[in-house]
Design goal:
Mean pLDDT: 87
Number of strands: 6
Helix content: 40-55%
Low-confidence stretches: 1-32
Number of domains: 2
Largest sheet: 6 strands, antiparallel
Strand order of the largest sheet: 4-3-2-1-5-6
Structural class: alpha+beta
Distance between the termini: 62 Å
Order of helices and strands: HEEEEHEEHHHH
Strand content: 15-25%
Shape: globular
Radius of gyration: 23 Å
């Protein structure tokens, strides 16, 4: 009986000694995932906003910064916000980054001149890599998909800012803005509509706003849910 008790005590002590190591390895793994990130920078003087930076971590946490000379009067020069993107779109971004060799290379289209849509930089960082590539337009499929996702996110965030401004200062202008958003959504030019879902919900539930605008907000909410 004493021998059995001694064995049990020994096993318990060994388990306690091993547990912190296992926890630490798990914590390191989580930290490593969070440390991986993709950053999209775009500079386009003829477009609003002129500058955009979006950084997505491997856990989905996203930081958005934009600079515009045509900013709302009650905002700072640089607009910043943070949110989490959907796991599906996060996974797409990191899968496409892998397909593009983590941006280690030149992906610029050089066959002939194309209309500029702004200078773009993609950067990938993890524990063993730190690569970036600069381009205006690329025919690489993975680079195109990543660019479309980030530009769609930017479009969504900027429309959300406009909705906030209009709801405060020009409720009658909401219908035209929401109509434009529906067209953009149909053209796959918006991404991660859930980012602005609270604003859409507040518009849809506000009886002081035109019914047609509220209906448009409701349809956009339904699309956000379907994403």
């Amino acid at each position: 009986m004493k021998r059995t008790r001694l064995i049990l005590i020994t096993l318990a002590v060994v388990s306690m000694l091993l547990l912190p190591g296992k926890m630490l390895r798990g914590q390191n793994a989580d930290h490593g995932a969070a440390a991986s990130s993709i950053t999209f920078d775009r500079v386009w003087d003829e477009f609003t906003p002129q500058k955009v930076t979006i950084t997505v971590s491997a856990n989905g946490n996203t930081k958005y910064i934009s600079h515009s000379s045509a900013k709302p009067p009650d905002e700072d020069d640089d607009y910043q916000t943070e949110f989490a993107i959907s796991p599906a779109r996060r996974d797409k971004l990191f899968r496409y980054a892998k397909e593009a060799n983590y941006f280690d290379g030149d992906f610029t289209f050089k066959k002939h001149a194309v209309a500029s849509t702004g200078k773009k930089i993609l950067t990938y960082v993890d524990s063993s890599r730190h690569f970036n590539t600069t381009y205006d337009y690329s025919e690489n499929k993975a680079i195109q998909e990543i660019t479309n996702i980030f530009q769609g996110i930017s479009n969504t965030v900027e429309h959300g800012r406009k909705l906030k401004f209009l709801r405060r200062f020009d409720k009658l202008g909401l219908e035209a803005e929401l109509k434009g958003m529906e067209s953009a959504a149909e053209g796959h030019n918006l991404a991660e509509l859930q980012i602005i879902a609270p604003m859409l919900e507040s518009i849809a539930g506000d009886s002081t706003i035109l019914n047609i605008a509220r209906q448009r907000a409701q349809r956009l909410l339904a699309k956000a849910s379907s994403e």
